[in-house]
Amino acid sequence: MNNAPPASTRSQRRRSRRRQRLVDAAREIIARKGLAGLTVQDVTEEADMAVGSFYTYFPNKEALIEAAIWEDLQQLGNPQRPELAGLTPDQRLQAQLMQLFQFVEQHRALFQAVFGPRHAPEHYERALDLLETRVADGLRLNTGLPEEAIAWITPLLAGLIGGGIRYLLAHPEVSAEEMALRTTILIRPLSEQIPADLTTNG
């Protein structure tokens, strides 16, 4: 009996691998040169592919940039994981930060492109917006803080975590575990630290 995968499946896998080579090459170039230094020719040279083949996978450079930065970044720090359900708020906080900083380590070129010294401001701001969304979700999940408190705490914490990401990128000798522990110590748990009179508008 012939157990070989269909030719269409093999073709799809090959196409996916070649597309990913372009995405990975774009991330490396953005991290080194910034978005302004990204050209289709540089990307195809980095990926060891013909320039003409680029347009088989992307209609233009902008579509490649969107894929290179945002396909994986959307996964950043999602707090709604079922394995966190049985943990205390403090344990959940550290587990979420660990997941986030491990994600940064696993996608270092991507985060260099977004948070590194040659980042593009529009993608940096968009990443901070995403980080704020994740932080707000985590606060709702882990604390009993009212929405008016979450509204002003969220950008402060997102800035702190964004700074942690930049520090981790600049100091590869620091592990994700150590960065998560340092950050947890600073912000654990908010519901116990913030005075009641600061959780209202009045």
Describe the model:
- With 202 residues, the protein is mostly helical.
- The chain folds into 2 domains: 7-68, Homeodomain-like (Arc Repressor Mutant, subunit A, Orthogonal Bundle); 74-198, Tetracycline Repressor, domain 2.
- It has 10 helices and no strands.
- Helix 1 (7-33) crosses helix 6.
- 27% of the residues are buried.
Give a brief description.
This protein has helices spanning about 5-35, 40-45, 50-55, 60-75, 90-105, 110-115, 120-140, 145-170, 175-185, 190-195.
Low-confidence stretches: none
Q: How many distinct folded domains? A: 2
Shape estimate: elongated
Topology as a string of helices (H) and strands (E)? HHHHHHHHHH
Q: Residue share in helices?
A: over 70%
End-to-end distance, in Å?
75 Å
| CATH class membership of the largest domain | Mainly Alpha
- Approximately how much beta-strand content do the residues carry? under 5%
Q: How large, in whole angstroms, is the Cα Rg?
A: 20 Å
Structure classification: mainly alpha
- How many helices does DSSP assign? 10
Q: Give the name of the CATH architecture of the largest domain.
A: Orthogonal Bundle
What is the CATH T-level topology of the largest domain? Tetracycline Repressor, domain 2
Mean pLDDT: 84
The main sheet comes to: none
Give the total of beta strands: 0
Provide key terms for this protein.
202 residues; Arc Repressor Mutant, subunit A; Tetracycline Repressor, domain 2; 10 helices; mainly alpha; 0% strand
Secondary-structure blueprint of this entry?
Elements: H1 7-33, H2 40-47, H3 51-57, H4 61-73, H5 89-106, H6 108-115, H7 121-142, H8 147-170, H9 176-187, H10 190-193
Helix pairs in contact: 1-2, 1-4, 1-6, 4-6, 5-9, 6-8, 7-8, 8-9
